[in-house]
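Throughout our pipeline, every protein is held as a single compact record rather than as scattered files. The remainder of this section carries one protein's record, kept here as part of the documentation.

===
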Amino acid sequence: MTQVSWKCPSNIALIKYWGKKGNQLPANASLSFTLNECFTKTTVKLLPKTSNEKFEFSFFFDLKPNPAFEPKLNSFFKNIYEMFKFLNEYKLEIFSENSFPHSSGIASSASAFGALALCLCSIEKQFGVNFDTNEFYKKASKVARLGSGSACRSVFAPIALWGKNEIFEQANDEYAIPYNFAHKIFDNFCDTILIVDSGAKEVSSSIGHSLLNNNPFAINRFNEANKNLNFLNIALQSGDFELFNSTAESEALMLHALMMTSKPYFILMKPNTLNIIETVWKYRKSSKLNLTITLDAGANVHLLYPYSQKLQVRDFINDELLKYCSNGKIINDFVGNGPEKVEIA
């Protein structure tokens, strides 16, 4: 029996991906930190087929059948069926587990489809398809994108860039590329995720993307994203933390402004999301520490800061921010080294 396992991390976008075209292609370029402690572990087993169906699979989350995720997987496999010949010959058993709450504004679909794509590419390699390392990760990124757009970025670390733009000629809409130009201040950059709400989002990211199509601010948004990518690139390469901070926070707030101006409009932030943001801004002004907040498509807050300031920042979190977190829940994460193949004993 063929069996493969991968751990793939989530990511947090600094330049946000919100709005798409065609088959999971981005309306603007995005750039993200790849995390370390927030990951999905996925195992794929190949079994003999049990019917004459063209393709068979079963999906288990935390070792339990999860039919709620199967429609999304069905759509994914329809998109990639022709890319993997072995899908016609075997039944797949897919086992997945997260190290963090899913569907709560942490990019769980990114890590999930990243891990699944890496498993499929590894199986293909076992069947004799020759990849060099670059080709392997490039295909995994492309496959992951067809499950969840942001998943294509989780395949690369420590920073990933996805989408054509005027700054990086090698960037592509179909897959992400690694970004390797960051100043040393961003090495082991910390991300403490403040869990305001660990429940499922009221509006999924997929629906949110589709609502942008009729948003009156969409075109301006895409133009601003491209400008902000340029600013963030300058900040990352030079270590200009003020520019990094203003760009990343502007992107986070713009993302949620787009939600509130969609038709129909919706709000994913909660009152404690705003309490955290205001408390961080006040403390940053008085402490002069390099703190940046960003938000994904949910209520939780990502607090970004240099590793050198970790002790001071975590004292501040314990003293001032835990009271705004659901049951005091936080996840201390950092910019990591990317996916890891799990050796099976």
User: Anything to note?
Assistant: The mean pLDDT is 94.
